[in-house]
Every structure is written in structure tokens, then in C-alpha cells.
Amino acid sequence: MASSYRVYYSFPFHLLLFLSSLLSSSADLSFNFYANSCPLAEFLVRNTVRSATSSDPTIPGKLLRLLFHDCFVQGCDASVLIQGNSTERSDPGNASLGGFSVIERAKNAIEILCPATVSCADIVALAARDAVEAAGGPVVEIPTGRRDGNISMAANVRPNIIDTDFSLGQMIDAFSSKGLSIQDLVVLSGIYINVS
């Protein structure tokens, strides 16, 4: 059972790496971006995710899905976290997203030590990475240095996120437009089925 659980999360983790850099300039990202400005940032995110996962085993899938929805709309900029009328978060396509409280707890812990330093976009990416590890997946470093977006529009969700009434052809086209394969579609569909 444990090995199938690990296999289940290992491929999405590699997809996580792709998603976290989707629509981001790789020149802007680096490993250990917060080494000097907030050296405990990744540790705090990891511990927050481990704690949340120990009390709710659906957290890993929720955090991967949250990253997916963030990255697919207008890049990995945490715009899905912004609350309010007509924001990405308010769109019915995002109504079943979870994991927001984990991101909030991690952000609050980081803000105590390093105010206004670590982006929410990096926290979302790191939390998804750490959720995979907490579920028995591989430990892999990802680059950080993403910037938070300040524009979040519900109107941007539907053209970019697969809807429940999409045909298989429409789903394949949507994934292809983001540089993803049919295998990626199948894996992410499995995550949706298991956490929705």
C-alpha cells in the first residue's frame, strides 16, 4: 500500500515542478532565494504542511490542486488566494478548492520572523512540494523567487481551467496549450477524483 501511495504522488510531484515554473521567467527564480532574507521560510512551510497532513490526509491533493489552479490561470502568482467579489477564488470553478488555511498558517508563521519578505506564490509552490513529501513522495528542491500577483479576476478562470462539461478533446486541447501531456491530464484527473 505504501509503495502505491508513493508512486501515486511521485508523478504529480514532477508535474508540480513544471507547474511552479509555468509562465515564470526562470531567470527570476533561484534555489535558496530566501537564504539571507528569511532562512527559516522553507522549514516553516514544511512543518506547517506536515502538521496539517497529519490531521487531514487529503491535504496533499488539495495543495497540489491549489497550485494547479493558481498556475493555470495567469501563472504561479498566488492570485487564487485573493478574496473578494469577481476574484479567481470566487469563481464557481474554484469553489471546491481546499488548502487555503494551510497556506494562511504558513504565511502567518513566516510573517512573525520575516515580515513582508516571502511571497505567497512561493508559499503555495513550497506547500505543494512539501505535501507530496509528507505523503511519501520524493524530496526535491524547487527554485523560489516568485512574485505575488495583485490582479485576480474570475473571468480569467473559465478559459484556463478544465470545466466539468468539457469533452475529452477539449481537456486534451487545454492541457496541450499549457505544454502538458495526456498522461499529465490523467494524473491530475486522479487527484481531482480523490480530493473532491
Automatic annotation (TrEMBL):
Needed cofactors: Ca(2+); heme b
Function: Removal of H(2)O(2), oxidation of toxic reductants, biosynthesis and degradation of lignin, suberization, auxin catabolism, response to environmental stresses such as wounding, pathogen attack and oxidative stress. These functions might be dependent on each isozyme/isoform in each plant tissue.
Protein name: peroxidase
Keywords from the UniProt entry: Calcium, Disulfide bond, Heme, Hydrogen peroxide, Iron, Metal-binding, Oxidoreductase, Peroxidase, Secreted, Signal
UniProt-listed GO biological process terms: hydrogen peroxide catabolic process; response to oxidative stress
Active site: 69 (proton acceptor)
Signal sequence range: 1-27
Keyword NADP applies: no
GO molecular function: heme binding; lactoperoxidase activity; metal ion binding
EC number: 1.11.1.7
PROSITE patterns: PEROXIDASE_4
Binding-site residues, Ca(2+): 70, 73, 75, 77, 79, 88
The reaction(s) this protein catalyses: 2 a phenolic donor + H2O2 = 2 a phenolic radical donor + 2 H2O
Gene3D superfamilies: 1.10.520.10, Peroxidase, domain 2 (1.10.420.10)
Superkingdom: Eukaryota
Pfam families: peroxidase
Plant heme peroxidase family profile domain mapped to chain residues: 28-190
Disulfide-bond pairs as recorded: 38-114, 71-76
Positions in coiled-coil regions: none
